[in-house]
Amino acid sequence: MATKTTSDPITFTTSDERIAELLETLREIADLGALGSLAGWDQETAMPPGAAEVRGSQLAALEGLIHERAVAQRLGVLIGELTEAMAPPISATASAGASSPASAEADATAYTDADRGLVRHARRDYERATKLPKGLVQEIAKAQATSFDAWRKARANNDFASFAPSLGRMVTLQREVADRYGYKESRYDALLDIYEPGLTTSRVDTLFKRVREISVAVLQRIRRSGHIVDASCLTGEFPVERQVALCERVLRDMGYDFARGGIAQSPHPFTSSFGSPFDVRVTIRPDEKFLQAAVMAAAHEGGHAVYEQGSDPVLARTPLAGGASLGAHESQSRLWENAIGRSEPYWRAQFAAVREVFPEQYKNVEPETFARALNAVAPSLIRVEADEVTYNLHIIIRFELEKAIINGDVAIESLPRLWNEKYKEYLGIESPTDSDGVLQDIHWSHGGFGYFPTYTLGNLYSAQIYAALRRDFPDFDERLARGDRLFALDWLRARMYRVGAIYEPEELIERVTGEKPNPVYFERYLNEKFARVYDLPPA
Amino acid sequence: MATKTTSDPITFTTSDERIAELLETLREIADLGALGSLAGWDQETAMPPGAAEVRGSQLAALEGLIHERAVAQRLGVLIGELTEAMAPPISATASAGASSPASAEADATAYTDADRGLVRHARRDYERATKLPKGLVQEIAKAQATSFDAWRKARANNDFASFAPSLGRMVTLQREVADRYGYKESRYDALLDIYEPGLTTSRVDTLFKRVREISVAVLQRIRRSGHIVDASCLTGEFPVERQVALCERVLRDMGYDFARGGIAQSPHPFTSSFGSPFDVRVTIRPDEKFLQAAVMAAAHEGGHAVYEQGSDPVLARTPLAGGASLGAHESQSRLWENAIGRSEPYWRAQFAAVREVFPEQYKNVEPETFARALNAVAPSLIRVEADEVTYNLHIIIRFELEKAIINGDVAIESLPRLWNEKYKEYLGIESPTDSDGVLQDIHWSHGGFGYFPTYTLGNLYSAQIYAALRRDFPDFDERLARGDRLFALDWLRARMYRVGAIYEPEELIERVTGEKPNPVYFERYLNEKFARVYDLPPA
Q1: What is the domain partition of chain A in residue ranges?
Q2: What are the CA-CA distances from residue B371 to residues A114, B162, B341, B345, B488 (Å)?
Q3: Between 20 and 30 A from B480 (CA), which of A304, B291, B302, B370?
Q4: Shortest distance, CA A50 to any CA of chain B (angstroms)
Q5: Is the pLDDT of residue B209 over 60?
């Protein structure tokens, strides 16, 4: 199968007015949801601390209204009818009845891909909303607040034991969520599916085994070479405002549209949409002593953002606007951050902007030196600061631990010990504190089990899409080095971004790259890239 | 009647559970309304232009939900029952029935001032929401969008004729609104009452006649004196960021709480609350060449904001949190901007901050020179740039014209001519263009007839409150000159801010100052202040 340029117009059918009714309902939910996202954005970027409690009431009021709409009986009926209407007849005889087999088939084929995607999302969301009783949802919300607070304090005091009861409670609640949602093989599957539709434990097991082998092999080659990358040019004095100006330049140059976006600062960088593709904003957090943090966050969040901004406007105000899944999303943040944004050809063109903003710091630094510094590899304790080679090992450790916790194979109390053992085994390092160990991530504190694997999935998808891009543009590096990045954006928009969440992630990857998801591209990417960066002898 | 320090705790009764039910309903409406305000704030401070349409959908969805709640039958029943329960029995015999006269009276007196204020606001809002048919509300919203656009273009092209049809439409619609709301004497009364509860045309007529005499008299004294105030120290080069830092300092020094607020930039300065007293933010718009704009906007918006931040937390998430009316609100912005913020004693202390931020510009300028420059009087065409002496003449012109339009006494087409005649008569100047004449304000373009008078009302209230403050603090000027401003804030909080909108504006002024609203304080204020600023001979 070749890569598919979806240049056909994206439309919803007008031949079934139930689609119009469904759209109207989902648009209202999307509009209200967007206001909730805006409130969340404000919370991270501008809200004063004194407003925390009253904002909580406001969001609760809004979420209550959204929930009412999300579980409305009429919505369930609509989804049921449309699902049935879209199904192909089982056989000529089975479908006989009110309509003839021929016309039933004609009906089912009258729906567009967008219609089908819409109903699939609507069904999924409706089932999610109706499967959890209100009492459980409220209990989770309350437990999250307590647990987040306990985690924050435990991390500050390096005191895992004080967090363990809250964590245990989150595990219990998420097990109940999994049971309510249902699963075929493993309870943990139900949680994986929340973040990446269709993902299963067995699939992750297989993939991650391979990723671990790939990562460890590259790491060993680098170690054996004894080569060192000098990253000292990334540290120094970088006034915040000038970093913001540089990040704006990086975003603009990669095709991010400020007329439908904006940039702000927050404790952790993130991207948020209040109506894709029309309003997609990013945040950064400049570090005055370390340029890499803000610049690479800009490229990373920019990747998420150009994906959201690329949705066809027809999809606006529906669950189909934006990314297909967290994995698909992460594939784009990683593509722009790592595959493009940490490549030497890219910096050959983009480095002029760095020199313009920080002339004193970079007058004697070459673009190649800067690009190489951004790719220094060193096993470290902190996931969010990890390089491309070791990053996925951090994820694999978390996956293995949370799978075991959810499936009941290990006790909460064993987590710090198991964490340290795995860091020792996979990365060859040990954390002197639990604060920089098992307590470092926020995810588990709010019950986000099943989320971590999507990061690595994104890296795998990213490598595969990147390979397809390079295949279609044999002069890829020359274009980047000339300062052209929009050819890549146009290609991604045409094949991937514009269809939003119409297709399930695995189908989407196949449509974009011409092949089912395959980790071999990640293996090649990592080997080739770091052989170059570290000047490695052949494996 | 002496000024009343309302140090009694503010409470809602727990003896009637209908109050609790009313509170619950109004809190949900307030919470949703706060999210709408947040979206409005975002629109002015951060939203990208490409998001305008999708934001329109989001706000429409939210407003639809708020409206549903605002007209709910149960709410109407609650308000009706509570209104009746709060009324004193007409006579012993008339109230006989289910309850004895004695207990009926006991019931009515069991309600607190907050209960009564709550029911008064709820009733007013409910009547407003139910009196306008949905079709009219939608028609107004649509006409506003068109009219705003027409006004913007007409002003850019100095072409009143192109705006006249839209303006005519807004007048027709507002007349219908007035008729639906109802009034006793004049149709325009119904519109005045929207912005200032209880205000009537005849009351404004009387007040404004006096204000005009006062203003013209002071203006003539200044003219006759031939004295000139040199305001050149306010112009120069003032980098925006340093202006923002100075404005933050001004706000902090006047007691504005950044832990429950924040500052941003927008095309026009404004204050917005997303849950008073917990989240009240201000905007400024620095002018690189003219320091006065941002600094005095900070003091003005700061006045609005400390008023909102001063509401008793018990009132949070109800219609009673925040100001009693637009006039009461403007009294506080004017008090902090003009009475305090343009006084010489204030700048004797605050000028150090100006010198610190702009050392080169102000090393040779004295605080007295700076303060005097802020009070230069000169009749000018633009209301928002007017000094304290001429400002109200701008308002009176608008009042006279809009009253005549709404009551049908003049044709839309005559407005430019009448505008210019009045400017000639009241201020002795004529606008060379309609853009700087009848087209200068946004208010009429969205049908905001009846709003302008609240600005002058605020100035009158401000002078009266200021007089009461000075009466209670004989060393007022010395305190200001020492850098103390919090004594004034504390006084205002205790007497005025904490009770929010519990009392109607005229009653509030009486409670705060010990006297019914009286324009004599404004006359004294203006005369004394400008005799000092312009070194005038006795009148």
Answers
A1: 17-131, 201-533
A2: 65, 43, 9, 9, 19
A3: B291
A4: 5
A5: yes
- Say yes or no for a CB contact (<8 Å) between B279 and A55: yes
Cis-peptide into B359, omega within 30 deg:
no
Look up tokens 């304290």; give the residue: B388
Contact B188, B201 (CB under 8 A): yes
Q: What is the pLDDT of residues B455-485, one digit of tens each?
A: 999 999 999 999 999 999 999 999 999 999 9
Query: Does residue A98 register a pLDDT over 80?
Result: no
A contacts of B61 (beta carbons < 8 Å): 28, 31-32
CA A164 from chain centre, in angstroms, equals 28
Nearest to B274 among A34, A51, A279 (CB): A51
User: Inter-chain contact B279–A57, Cβ cutoff 8 Å?
Assistant: no
Condensed to tens digits (0 to 9), the pLDDT of residues B243-272 reads 999 999 999 999 999 999 999 999 889 999
Give the C-alpha separation, A94 to A88, whole Å.
Answer: 11
**pLDDT tens digit string along A239-249?**
999 999 999 99
Instruction: Decide: B455 and B199 in contact? Cβ < 8 Å.
Output: no
Q: A201-533: which CATH topology?
A: Neurolysin; domain 3 (1.10.1370)
| Residue contact A58–B31, C-beta within 8 A | yes
Q: Cα distance from B5 to chain A (closest Cα, Å)?
A: 26
- Say whether A62 and B261 touch across the interface (CB within 8 A): no
In this prediction, residue B101 has a pLDDT band, given cuts at 50, 70 and 90, of: very low
Mode of pairing for the β-strands spanning A280-284 and A261-265: parallel
d(CA B279, nearest CA chain A) in Å: 5
Closest residue of chain B to A41, computed from CA coordinates:
B42
Place of tokens 């006279």: B400
Q: Between A187-195 and A201-225, two packed helices, what is the crossing angle to 10 degrees?
A: 70
- Annotated catalytic residue within A196, A301, A337, A506: A301
Interatomic CA distance for residues A332 and A302, integer angstroms: 9
How far apart are alpha carbons B323 and B27 in whole angstroms?
17
- The residues of B whose Cβ lies within 8 A of any Cβ of A are 27-28, 31-32, 34-36, 38-39, 42, 46-51, 53-55, 57-58, 60-62, 65, 257-262, 264, 274-275, 278-279, 281, 316-317
Does ipTM surpass 0.85 in this model?
yes
CA A242 to each of CA A254, A365, A374, A490: distance values in angstroms, whole numbers, following the listed order = 19, 18, 19, 29
Distance CA(A175)–CA(A188), nearest Å, equals 8
Residue environment code for B331-353, b if the CB has 16+ CB neighbours within 10 A, otherwise e: bbbbbbbbbbbbbbbbbbbbbeb
Residue A1 binned pLDDT confidence (cut-offs 50, 70, 90): very low
Chain-chain contact of A39 with B42 (C-beta, under 8 angstroms): no
Tell me the shortest Cα–Cα distance from B31 to chain A, in angstroms. Answer: 5
Each residue's pLDDT tens digit, B217-230: 999 999 999 999 99
Strand order in the sheet with A271-273: A261-265, A280-284, A271-273
Catalytic residue among B24, B44, B185, B301: B301
Is A32 in Cβ contact with B317 (below 8 Å)? no
| pTM for the full predicted model | 0.92
Number of Cβ within 10 Å of residue B87's Cβ equals 12
Answer yes or no: A368 catalytic.
Answer: no
Contacts of A47 in chain B (CB under 8 A): 262, 279
* Six token digits for residue B500: 């929010």
**Which residues on chain A are in Cβ contact (under 8 Å) with B34?**
54, 58
Indicate the residue of B27, B32, B54 with minimum beta-carbon distance to A279: B54
pLDDT at A105: 47
Report CA torsion sign: B254, B260, B266, B268: negative
Q: Do B259 and A53 touch (CB under 8 A)?
A: no
B491 and B472 Cβ atoms separated by less than 8 Å: yes
